[in-house]
Amino acid sequence: MRSFIAKMSATAAVAVAAVAALQAGASAGTMAPQPAGAFTTASSSAQSDPIVSFTTTMRSYTPVNLTPGPLAAGDGYVIAGKVIRFGAPDGLSTAQCTYTDTAGPVLRVCTVDYALANGLIVTSGYIDGPGQSAPVTLVVDGGTGAYANARGYGLLRPTATGSDVTLRLAN
Question: Which of 3, 89, 104, 153 could potentially form a cystine with 26 if both were Cys, beta carbons 3.0 to 4.6 Å apart?
């Protein structure tokens, strides 16, 4: 089990470094605020990037504890939710997060997928902080349908009932 956690921590460190590098490169532009449910094009100095934003409502939360006792690296949770776009249900969301560091600054790595009416958006990200209200920095890893081969970045902000999500997709 210790070998598994050590390998997982090394993999998580590589994933966090990749996310941080992508976020640093992507943060050269600013993300324009958009109303929930909007799918618009926002201008940046070099190009226009489609922005997809929506809210989610949590339907279930299931802790996944691999070790007995206090929270440890490898523990995590799974969340399922409903996506709301343009004021109406538009699909489902799932998230799976794993704690990689619980002794120092708490760090979780996550995969968050959004199955929307017009396609699937696959993201990964990290949460730097112990609180349930810590924002999740997301990297868009791909998708299907209208989001086939999607790339980009975004932010998931937890709310009392789910989250507000804004994704900027690269052209």
Answer: 153
